[in-house]
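Please predict the structure of the following assembly.
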Amino acid sequence: MFKYAIDLVFRRKLRTFLTSLGILIAVMLMSFILFGMSDLESLIVGQFTEQFKPNELTVGTMDMTSMMGGALSAPTKGEVEQEEMILNSEAVEKIENIEGVETVNRIVSIRGLDIYLEDDDVPYPRGFPMATDISGDSAMIGDLLEGDDLSLDGDEVYVSDFVSKFYEFSNEEMLGKKIILKSSTTSVFSAPSKSNIAKEYELTIVGVTDSGNSALFIGLDKGLEIAADLGGYDSKEEFLDTVGYTQLLLSTDIDKTSEIEDYIVDELGFSVLSTETLMEFVSTITGGLTVALILFGSISALVASIGIINTMIMSIYEQTKEIGIIKAIGSSNIQVLIIFLIQSAMIGLIGGLLGLGVTYILMKVIDPFIVDLLIEQGFTVNNFFNFRFDYAIYITLGSILIGILAGLYPAYKASRLDPVKALRHD
Amino acid sequence: MKNKYIEIKNLERVYQPSSKVKVDALRGLNISIKEGEMVSVVGSSGSGKSTLLNILGGLDWDYRGEIIVDGKDIREYDENYYRRYIVGTIFQTFYLIPTLNVEENILLPLKFGKKMSKKETHERLEKLLDAVGLADRRDHMPKELSGGQAQRVAIARALIDQPKIVLADEPTGNLDSKTGAQILDLLNKLNKEEKTTMIVVTHDMKIADKTERKIKLVDGRNV
């Protein structure tokens, strides 16, 4: 009976193949989710946890998760009011005095400057200088790939290895070279004014970091000096009182981290980005992506099922007389049902195996490109897709199940055919 | 030998294709057939021959009256059992499965219910292949066979399960007269060898003359 059912499947090879293409697409989408997405999340989480320690908190003046493009909650009036808050010396002092706060590092992002390497007319297109008092071996700055000066004084600057690559120098060659920061006339962050036109600041590279898209790090003092000068303030103090630090990076007693986070948000009115919130944010994004892919996969599985139903109904129509014959020679309704379910299960199996095969080949072909892309984006990764045999078995079983479910109605119809009418069918 | 192996009593079959149309295909048919007898059922088109064959073949159960086979009303049999082991049917257009070879076509009924061991099946297959003269064509596909050969495969298929009754619906209808006569001779031979009761439906009197007895149907009744 099984052989006879298989014969029926391969009697119309092209149609069986075309029908199984629907399953193939669904299987490919599901395979990409299973072989890629689970690793993507752990990859991103791994990358973040490398940069953000669980006891660290980043304090800013606005909701940093919404700044990243994915607000986790609706905006409130309170948040708008928070934007008026300034991270000035007074605020820093308050935060330093919170119990459990171990260190407070200050960060100022300096916008409105173009980054040039000496003797080169092409500005580095990505990132902006960040002034900080964080030492060179911290998680935020990343590892020093070249240079051994762990604190930035005066005109000293760290550049990311992306800058070395951009200007086609080795990291070692970059040491000692000058970085020229020129006030940008095209900045969207500040209105052009007479005071900031044609300003230039010269810095010396003392280290190359693996900080990726964070292009430049300069010492806090120098940074404040540049920010004040660029903004037309009389002194660093005036800049701090008016604009304030962009961010503070707190290292806290791990037992008190979330208590401190709540205190800063509720009592001082600043926004805080903790590793915990960041991870929630990451899993929201990857979770959303997974749901979207599963949705696409399910829709294509549904379309594939309709394709199978259509093919099976066509096949029953064509084989009506044959169903009559096998009924006349003694097959029961259940046996006819099984014959047609075997056929639809086979279509599912063929689609599943083809889908897995194509996915496997595609994964091998595109994996190096994705890995390159991720490495370029600053991720540390050896391979993106991870072909797992247990998942491959689940996918194959799933394909067979889809085939059987889609075949249920046509098979039932076939089993109920009146043999006399079936034998008269032309 | 039982004198009343098959007893058909007051068999009626009414078709109602629509609410206004009513067709009395069989109107109180009464027939008795002896065990091992080979009879023909003759009649013009529309006389009820095919309806009778469908009912006897266990394909149509929507009839009134009684059909007793070997002392038991056929309604008491399981439908599938009845079609599998009580009757074997031969059709005018052979109805072989095109993707299966001669041997596989003959063995197909056994796929739906087996009561023979592998050895018995093999012996039965060889015996039938010899009987129908197709031992050297066992691997041939139906499209490679002549009409007469295809009908001989169908005869072997009908007999593989050792049915008590073989029903043949115009078995020579698609064959030339010479081949038709050969097929009838084969059926006659098998009727003797297998001791199977055979009912041959035909409109060809020459074919009917080769059977032991003719049952003539006119307008759904036997005359």
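Chain B has one domain: 38-61+76-222. Chain B touches chain A through 24 residues (CB under 8 Å).
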